[in-house]
Structures are given as C-alpha cells and as structure tokens.
Write a structure and sequence with these properties.
Number of helices: 12
Oligomer: single chain
Low-confidence stretches: 91-124, 428-432
CATH superfamily of the largest domain: P-loop containing nucleotide triphosphate hydrolases
CATH architecture of the largest domain: 3-Layer(aba) Sandwich
Strand content: 15-25%
Radius of gyration: 27 Å
Number of strands: 15
Length: 432
Amino acid sequence: MRISKVAFRDFPPFADAIVEFPPSASDGAGEVHLLTGQNGTGKTRLLCLLAAACGNLNPLARRLGPRTKTLAAVVNEMPVHRVHQGIWLSPPDSAFWFDGPNAPLMVRESLKTCRPIGDSERSVKLTDKDGTVALAFRGMARVSDTQISALAKVDMGLPGDHLTFEPAVNENAIICQSVANLVMGAAMDTHRKIPKDRSRATRLLERLEATLSEISRRQFSFEVTPPPEVTLRIVWGSTRMSLLQLPDGLRSIIGWLVSCVSKLESMSPEHPDPLSVSLILLLDEPEGHLHPAWQRKVLPAAQMLFPQAQIFAATHSPFVISSVNDGWVHIFRADEAGVVTIEPPRECSKGDTYLDVVEDILGVKEWYDPETESLLAEFRQTRDAVLSGSGDFERLESQARTIASRSASLRDLMAREMRQVECLATPVGTGS
C-alpha cells in the first residue's frame, strides 16, 4: 500500500487543494517525502492526518479542536489491483466536494466510496487492506534502560499506540526486549552452527548494527549481560555503556530507528525479512539531537534499511533535505493571512548542497547574524548611492572597515566589494 494523495477543504491552515505524492523512481530504497516550511505551516498537522488515515485519530483531533465542517481525504493506492481507496474527515451527512472541473476524475470517482472517520469510527484505517504497518515517531524521543527477561515475549500494546508521535507507555521495554531477543537469538543460532544467511536474528541484528555504525561513524553493537540481571548494553567503539550513558543523538536514533526495527520484527514474527514489509513511516523532525554529520546520514540509512517503506518526514534541516537523492520535497508556504499552500513536489536533486537548500528551498537569504546583516544592508545602500554618483565614498570606506573587523570572511567580502566600487565609480568630489 502507498498513500498517493491527500485533499483538503476548510482544513486549517491549508488552502483547498489536492496534494500529490509521486512514487519513487528508484528500486531497492524506501520512498521519501520531505515536508518543509516555516513554523506554523501545518507540517505536523499533515503527518497527524496521515496517522488518522492509518488508524489513530487522536493526534489530529487534538490539533483540530471542535470543528464541524473540516474536510480532508487521504487516498490509498493499491498497486496490485490498481484500486484507489480513501477516508475522509467530515460531518456524516456531508457530500464529498472537489467535484468541480479542476478536480481529476480519478479522485472524484475513487473518493465517492471513502469511509468517514469520526468519534464513532476511530478504528477505520487504510493499512488494514494489505498488511501494511504504520508507525509514527518524533525525532526528539530518547530511549532509556529498562528491565528485560531472557527471550521474553514483547508486549506491543494496541496498533494505535504506535501512531501518536510520542513514545508508547512501554516504548523502552519494546526496544530493549526486542533487541535483546535478537542478540540472544543470533547467539543461539551461532551456537547451533546455523549459517548466517539462514539465521533471521543474525541477519536483522547485523543490518541494524551496520546501519548505526554508518550513521555514528564508529563501530556499534548490542550485547546482553548474563543472568541474574539481564540487561541490554551498547558497545560503541571501545566503550561499553548503558542506554542512559549514550549521547542524546544516539538515544534519539535508537528511539525511532531501532524502535521501528523492533516493532516490525515483533509484529511479523514469521516473516523471513520483516524489514521488507510494506511500511508507512511518519517522522516529525528526525534530526532531533543530531550533529549535521549525522543528519546527513539518517534518512538515506532508513531508505536502505526499509526498502518497502513510504517515509513522510517533516524537517527544518538543510542537511536532512540535501542528503536525500531519491525522493520528493514538498514546500509549505503561508501567505500574510496564514493560509498555507503546498507547492507541487520537487524531485530531490543529487547535486544540491545544503547551501542550495538553505536559500532555494528553505528561503533563507541571510548568511550572517542579524547585526551584521543590518550593517551589510546599510553598506549596500551607501554603495548604490556611490555608484549612482550621489553617495559619500568616505562613509562607504568607514562602513567597510567596520564590517571587515568582524571576521576574516567579512574582511575578504569587503575587500572584493571595495575593489568593485573603485572599478565602477569615481568617488564624489575627487574629479576624474
């Protein structure tokens, strides 16, 4: 299953629209949709709408409040049968909208059979259709140590518990017990001389540890201490430590990436490769607590770890956005009244730098601190006046010296600017 589009009407802060989620062009890697825009443009609200479509209305209901005319639809494309299904949020007696000339016929016809979501029908979800798993995480979540038992069953709770963007009540137990079971299962298979390629636990554990080693740039592995007190421990480089002793960046990655692996493994105990199941993965700011070097690696790693996933990630990080080669960027922009439109999706570029993303996608034109930007604005105003023949060249020189004293890069910038002015203009009052 994949989510192909959403549609809004009277769904604040969005303007009435249909938003497309094009498929990925690459095989063997998860499909990524990056949601980016300034604060207050509805990125998390859209994630909550997708969570509602996948089975938990509560995060969205908390954000919407008591509205009676809100309408929104999520369309599910079933690629095997080429069937489109969907849900909507609306009053029970509302006819669906978007039946004007600008609405694609496919959307109008397919959504006529959408199922309404409301207080009396919170369990309806698109992911029931083909066994797709849906999980939601916030990047700021941090895993902690908890008591575990040798090869104990993992209590997963209810499916909706994993679509709230907040850690489940027993989140730490799910992660620690699931990973400990993998470690012990791999050890038992090794003891029984089962080849690695036939050991489900070994394959999963090695892929997970290799991913964390790649992101953190240091050898990473899990181990379980022997009885009587069975605990999960981390070996990072040459240091053994508990989860609480890890840096917050690693704890946050474990809090969603390892949690995702743990839940897939526990939800699909008979599947030979649970990381390859169909997955809707909703991420709110996965860059939480991460250094830029790690931010650049985390989503590409998730794409490779979950090749059948459709990943929706709300992010403000130019490092995250520029790291994705195969995926789509959806830019959220608000007008002066706060009404948000989502631009047509841009295909991620393999050649964009994070500097390109900062200016072109995030719309940040300033490169210096606010005080320096103010000085530069005054300098440019004086420079333009000098070039037009009406400015004070001595004042321009004074401004340039003040700015140049702030840093080496500004000193170089002012030297270039002044050379250009001297080539293009004759200072007022000096003659020719």
